[in-house]
Amino acid sequence: MAAPMLRWGCRGRRWAFARVDGGSCHRRGAPTGSTSNRIRGESSVAQQPLHTAQKTRKGEHKWAAVVGLEIHAQISSNSKLFSGSQVRFSAPPNSLVSFFDASLPGTLPVLNRRCVEAAVMTGLALNCHINKKSLFDRKHYFYADLPAGYQITQQRLPIAVNGSLIYGVCAGKKQSQVIPKTVRIKQIQLEQDSGKSLHDNLRSQTLIDLNRAEGQLRVDANISVHHPGEPLGVRTEVKNLNSIRFLAKAIDYEIQRQINELENGGEILNETRSFHHKLGCTMSMRDKEGKQDYRFMPEPNLPPLVLYDATSLPAGADPQQVINIDQIRETLPELPSVTREKLVQQYGMLLEHSFTLLNEVGLLEFFQNVIKETRAEPKKVTSWVLNTFLGYLKQQNLAVSESPVTPSALAELLDLLDSRTISSSAAKQVFEELWKREGKTPGQIVSEKQLELMQDQGALEQLCHSVMEAHPQVVMDVKNRNPRAINKLIGLVRKATQSRADPVMIKELLEKKLSL
Amino acid sequence: MWSRLVWLGLRAPLGGRQGFTSKADPQGSGRITAEVIEHLERLALVDFGSREAVARLEKAIAFADRLRAVDTDGVEPMESVLEDRCLYLRSDNVVEGNCADELLQNSHRVVEEYFVAPPGTCCPEWFNR
């Protein structure tokens, strides 16, 4: 109980996800501003093209969907948000629970400094305005895993507001093009998490563990539809979304459901729905009690949270008791968008490559280590890392850290390729051998398998000559400008060299001989 | 706090206050409907069993409504009586927990190291088992 959580609301005109698994990427547009359930009727935002979810019948108005995401993220800290109990997975039930977490009378919340720093860092990383003063509130509802009967949250005035996040959407043929998009972050707030309930239906009881709730990252989606130019529609909240794929499916389904309902003259209720992934649909969770009333009130035990920056920092203040936003900003690591931009500038790679490099844990470091040790051109390194290396990893479902090939090994291989000691196809063979984890270096493999390219130009010319003599018909075809014939000839020479000649070199020699 | 309000003087009631009172009674007639009572009972798990209890509630609301008589034009709402205090920040160290046995002793029912609760939201009948 009381594990620290950050909650942030994304109000997107479009989806916030880069890839929809197994399907094409849809783009949904909505022309107006925030769909926040609390703030409505914000002025229309700038023109942008509208993309609707499906074909419209002739004479029908287009529909626009607005989607907001509520994301709960567990803060990485040693102790909880309001108590000194440990934050840890897989501990015996109720062993990480203090008197406060169990809501015993007379206990008070004591704010964890680290959680505030984490919230500020998150706000800064997401381009938010950090509120120098923020407030804590109580949100009341009854549930067995919430022993206090309320959750301490930041409803009125959260710690950070009005941010944005740039992300990439895969589009185009083969999903290879990456289009940068922006999603707005409405706010970021600190709040307690609840405990965990285990339902025992057999004995009609629920078992409660107040250590922490499940899942380090949870998402709920708020969805509404409307006709462009008209006011926003009634929204529904969809819960029980356990993966990005389900999130996408659920949003798709709910948008369609709402459109169908409205087109058939029905109405949308402001309710909570649950996504059933086996049926692929959302179902109402409402019971006869009607809309939930959380009876928000200020948390009387916590004064406002005041943050400072370099200019407002009071002189002589205890550094343990003040939080300096500017100081925290300096500790922020380089953000992914900056890293991607640098990669594109420095190595001339495509934007989508930079996304791939950053999306795989450890891949960027691997790439940079290879670059450091090899003479080969960055573009070659990029291609080998993203295509060959990553391909092998994915095929065997390995993480970068589990790779049998080290950056040094790949660097050595690329050097051999760069110096034209081996051909491109030989390099692929060597790579395959390296992957077997037999402890041999690329150099050793090349020697053992005699993969070195023929360096003797004279001998190669001789071979070209004899092949040409042996296959006059093919030579005739080449002279007649048959496009496939030259490749056939190159293939024949390669066979004669037992694949130890560089096809590029062969082609050059042949072309010279044939005076092409 | 009270002295501050009194100093501002009494004026006609103003609108636009985000009251925690009087949601039940926007007309100011002092009567609360059965529907509202039911709603409150579910929200707060309180039992307004008797007419007497409802009357007490109505009196409490009327008492709180007197706050509306104060002119708060241009006055910044007080968020907390602690607003001039510093919010103490605790270091991120593990200093408590590990007292499951003690805590579980407080519970009416226990299964292994879990608290036991009725399924779903609490229902008063269950507690009397």
Automatic annotation (TrEMBL), chain A:
Ordered alphabetically, the record's keywords are: ATP-binding, Ligase, Mitochondrion, Nucleotide-binding, Protein biosynthesis, Transit peptide
**What spans are recorded as compositionally biased (Polar residues)?**
32-46
SMART domains from the UniProt entry: GatB_Yqey
Annotated stretches, region: Disordered: 26-46
Determine if GTP-binding is one of this entry's keywords.
no
Pfam families from the xrefs? GatB_N (PF02934), GatB_Yqey (PF02637)
Question: Subunit details for this protein?
Answer: Subunit of the heterotrimeric GatCAB amidotransferase (AdT) complex, composed of A (QRSL1), B (GATB) and C (GATC) subunits.
Q: What does this protein do?
A: Allows the formation of correctly charged Gln-tRNA(Gln) through the transamidation of misacylated Glu-tRNA(Gln) in the mitochondria. The reaction takes place in the presence of glutamine and ATP through an activated gamma-phospho-Glu-tRNA(Gln).
Name listed for the protein in its UniProt record: Glutamyl-tRNA(Gln) amidotransferase subunit B, mitochondrial
> What gene name is given for the protein in this entry?
GATB
From TrEMBL, chain B:
Q: Which Enzyme Commission number(s) are on file for it?
A: 6.3.5.-
The cellular location(s) given in this protein's UniProt record come to: Mitochondrion
| A Pfam family matched in the record | GatC
Q: Which GO terms describe its cellular component?
A: glutamyl-tRNA(Gln) amidotransferase complex; mitochondrion
Sorted UniProt keywords: ATP-binding, Ligase, Mitochondrion, Nucleotide-binding, Protein biosynthesis
GO terms (BP aspect): glutaminyl-tRNAGln biosynthesis via transamidation; mitochondrial translation; regulation of translational fidelity
One GO MF term: glutaminyl-tRNA synthase (glutamine-hydrolyzing) activity
Query: What's the catalysed reaction?
Result: L-glutamyl-tRNA(Gln) + L-glutamine + ATP + H2O = L-glutaminyl-tRNA(Gln) + L-glutamate + ADP + phosphate + H(+)
Tell me yes or no: is Lipoprotein among this UniProt entry's keywords.
no
Q: What does this protein do?
A: Allows the formation of correctly charged Gln-tRNA(Gln) through the transamidation of misacylated Glu-tRNA(Gln) in the mitochondria. The reaction takes place in the presence of glutamine and ATP through an activated gamma-phospho-Glu-tRNA(Gln).
Quaternary state and partners of this protein? Subunit of the heterotrimeric GatCAB amidotransferase (AdT) complex, composed of A (QRSL1), B (GATB) and C (GATC) subunits.
**Family listed:** Belongs to the GatC family.
Q: What is this protein called?
A: Glutamyl-tRNA(Gln) amidotransferase subunit C, mitochondrial
